[in-house]
Write a sequence for this structure.
């Protein structure tokens, strides 16, 4: 198997490499690409590939002749996606279409494993029920609507022969994630306070939101299992990757604070509040469990402990 990964040098890429090696075997050939490229501790070297450049994408697919593309390249943080919607459309929708068309032209047997988002269900989450893959897509912001548009476009292209797996991962975290996301945003502030680098005040956004969280390794395992089992999948299959449990953000913060001996007070910062924030999201991943043979196996409390340790190490190194 030859796997081409886009956006490989982001948060999830190294975890996917590790999962591919564990689940698909060490003989798997991995081509790591990203917009910037350059040396990378896990991949050795990452090749430059801007997914918005249709010609470059055609060239990369023709050269590597991948059996699978795992498309991670994205504007992953909602704030960044919202700040430049035109760019978000270009990357999420243009990037996915460039890859799909290059595969249809140059490597028609290749599977495109598209990393969408559980946020595509948007308003549909308001029922409070776990969201399965048949739930109406009702995205509420630029991030989610562009992920939904790309996901739907690939579904339509499957009618022209594209073999795609449309992944809809729910929230995930782990060591290495940036402070643009809630868990490392909380943990980095705790680490800075513990190191005496900040006042003992942690600034937060909406703590009443409830999100379905997984360890990033469980998410990466699902992508690798899609590669491994692709020959048994229908050529256009959608998978939610979720735990089925929703965590209140305030409870996540409390678990992190319980791991610190520092006396810390919490303060809401208006800038961290979103114009629209879904109150509760929880996913139903029954299909992934059944067809991919996937199940999460990292307790979330352990993941939180690992994120806090990683943040302490990052602060100590800074
Ligand atoms: N980022 C951030 N979020 C905060 C904060 N305080 C509270 N929150 C709340 O914490 C929740 C989670 O926010 P994020 O960690 O930023 O994740 P997200 O916006 O839900 O999106 C993540 O999950 C999606 C799948 O469900 C992914 O598609 C997306 O890329 C990202 O990983 C949101 O309800 C947000 O309002 C804070 O200081 N920072």
């Amino acid at each position: 198997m030859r796997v081409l990964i886009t956006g490989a040098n982001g948060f999830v890429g190294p975890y996917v490499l590790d999962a591919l090696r564990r689940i698909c075997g060490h003989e798997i050939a991995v081509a790591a690409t990203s917009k910037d490229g350059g040396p990378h501790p896990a991949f050795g070297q990452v090749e430059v590939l801007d997914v918005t450049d249709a010609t470059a994408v055609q060239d990369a697919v023709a050269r590597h002749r991948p059996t699978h593309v795992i498309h991670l390249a994205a504007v992953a943080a909602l704030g960044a996606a919202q700040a430049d919607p035109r760019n978000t459309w270009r990357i999420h929708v243009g990037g996915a279409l460039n890859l799909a068309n290059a595969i249809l032209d140059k490597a028609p047997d290749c599977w495109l494993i598209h990393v969408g988002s559980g946020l595509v269900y948007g308003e549909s989450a308001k029922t409070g029920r776990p969201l399965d893959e048949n739930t109406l897509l009702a995205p509420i912001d630029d991030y989610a609507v562009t992920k939904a548009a790309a996901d739907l476009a690939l579904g339509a292209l499957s009618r022209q022969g594209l073999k795609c797996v449309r992944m809809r991962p729910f929230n995930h975290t782990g060591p290495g994630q940036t402070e643009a996301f809630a868990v490392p945003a909380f943990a980095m502030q705790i680490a800075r306070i513990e190191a005496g680098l900040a006042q003992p005040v942690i600034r937060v956004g909406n703590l009443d939101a409830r999100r379905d969280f997984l360890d990033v390794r469980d998410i990466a395992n699902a992508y690798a299992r899609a590669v491994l089992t692709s020959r048994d999948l229908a050529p256009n299959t959608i998978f939610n990757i979720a735990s089925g449990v929703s965590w209140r953000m305030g409870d996540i913060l409390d678990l992190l604070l319980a791991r610190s001996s520092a006396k810390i007070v919490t303060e809401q910062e208006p800038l961290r509040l979103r114009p629209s924030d879904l109150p509760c999201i929880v996913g139903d991943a029954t299909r992934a469990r059944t067809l991919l043979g996937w199940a999460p196996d990292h307790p979330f409390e352990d993941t939180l402990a690992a994120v806090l340790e990683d943040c302490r190490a990052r602060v100590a190194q800074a």
Summary: Residues 2-174+213-245+282-297 form a domain with the Rossmann fold fold (CATH 3.40.50.720).
